[in-house]
Amino acid sequence: MSRLDKTAGFKMEGAKRASSFRSWSAAQGITTNGIDYCEIPNSGLGIVAKRRLEAGEELVNVPFPALVTINTVPKAFREKHNPITTQGLLAAFLASSNIEKTAYAPWADTWPALASFRESMPICWPQHRKAALTQDLLDETTSHHEWDLPFPSAIDHSSANFPGAGFEADPNLSLLQKQRKKLKADWERVGEALPNMSFERYIHYWLLVNTRTFYFEMPNVRTHPPRDDRIVMCPFIDLFNHQDTGCNVQFADTGYTVTTDRTYDAGDQVYVSYGRHSNDFLLVEYGFVLSSNRWDSTPVDHCLMAHLVNTPVEEQLRRAGYLGGYFLNNDGVCYRTQVAVRAQLLPEQSWNDFIAGRNFDDTRHEDQAQALLASQVLGPYLQEAEGALERLQRSFEASSSTFRRSYRILIQRWEQIRALLQRAAKGPVVGS
Known about the structure:
It is a single chain. The chain is α+β, with helices and mostly antiparallel strands and 432 residues long. It folds into three domains: 6-67 and 234-286, Beta-clip-like (Beta Complex); 70-229, no CATH class; 297-425, no CATH class. The chain is built from 14 helices and twelve strands. It has helices at residues 14-27, 75-81, 86-96, 105-108, 114-120, 175-193, 199-212, 279-286, 301-304, 312-320, 335-343, 348-355, 366-398, 404-425, and strands spanning 31-32, 35-40, 44-49, 58-63, 213-215, 231-233, 241-252, 255-259, 269-272, 297-299, 327-329, 332-333. Strands 1-4-8-7-9-3-2 form a seven-stranded mixed beta sheet, with no helix packed on it. It is globular. The relative contact order is 0.12.
């Protein structure tokens, strides 16, 4: 938990703009208790405790009329853009509304500038050196190798360095490719409906909506729209930064509230949790990684599948529902990985006993399983991580200050993956 000197805050937006947002929030019926917002070093704006806060205190109440939802968008505008995701629609609405001159202007003053996204969001990095972002970054052939950016396989499969022995990772599992595909579909629709809209302005608001919306579920409602369409923009609460555990955010038909999950001392930063997400997900979707993340994990499919493809074990795993989806987390390799490793060692009947739990305590093959895991997964992935870090460090040292934040984030991520691998290598992590 970070302790902050609140008197150092408000430098980014200035006293007048800070006062304007507070007045605007009050006019929307937003109430706060014992907290304020200020600039957090290396994190933009965040929320801090003005006094000691006890567990269970309501910190913020944002009434429903203050939210920006799909119903905020005029019906004619919605119909003009259909079909489109709610995220794409909200981005188009805000980008086309000259937000700086609307009633939302005081709130918009707290939103990140496009320059911040260009530094922190991987989707923007291929065009980091360009004066303006263009729709070329949506091209499926766009390669981060042009900027010497080796990504972990969860973020972008095309950047995985490990030789796959003929195995090609499923692009549907790449976080960055998913995001690019979603943005491309939204932009194609907006480009038709708003031909004068620039891509650079649109992606700025698309990323704003992407990083600052909340999911909601109405109580006592049996059916809901698809999850991706249940998003809202919520003033003031969008200033809370994320930790792997944080305050309780609740939605009701009257609006949103935030309630403390524990005690906070005056000057402490107060967090909410965006969900149980790995640092790969946080980097792609929000532009940061946590230094400590209890939910962190990294996929190891690109290593393990190279030894399974076109073998009898591949079909054996497929029939049993255990082909792919292999992860390493803070506790070691996941159960699916253990099953795949054991499939290469055990007779099929013994393996069936293992996955049924009838042979789970049998340690006769423990050393073999650990050795196989080390040779097929941990060793090669650790070699990949070391190579990626060497490349990134050279690029970081040769880069200008404009690009260093991007390199620094990616270096931090690879260091975290290396630490996961080194911890798992100490074992035993298979069958334990």
